[in-house]
């Protein structure tokens, strides 16, 4: 498995990974209504290509299967960070995170921050992040709990 930067042809696979991971993994921590609002069925692949191209999006490529991805913005924000439902707890997230932290150091970023789901909170704690606060956010008529987290590097 190699970690590389996003390519436009990855957009469809990444969008499906996002959708399926939320629907099949995050469902453990959120209701059906919440995951359906978070990851609706009407995926727009062009939107994903544009969003992933505008950030440093790192992809875990397992022989043409995208096993996970994570996005770093130039201000230190880690936006989307997801591992494929079939690659959970296999070190994929740690490899993606390592690439993100390396890039952040190259860019002179000294603080990384994210809004972690209930599902991903413990992963980010293992990566050295601290919880700033629990919060409630709204999306498509549903309220979600997530956690503002940060790490100084």
From TrEMBL:
InterPro entries: Acyl_CoA_acyltransferase (IPR016181), GNAT_dom (IPR000182), N-acetyltrans/Recomb-assoc (IPR052564). One of its GO terms (molecular function) is acyltransferase activity, transferring groups other than amino-acyl groups. Residues 1-153 form the N-acetyltransferase domain. Pfam families: Acetyltransf_10. SUPFAM superfamilies: Acyl-CoA N-acyltransferases (Nat). CDD domains: NAT_SF (cd04301). The keyword Transferase applies. Keywords: Transferase. The keyword Methyltransferase does not apply. Coiled coil: none annotated. PANTHER family: ACETYLTRANSFERASE, ACETYLTRANSFERASE (GNAT) FAMILY PROTEIN. This is Acetyltransferase. It comes from Dulcicalothrix desertica PCC 7102.
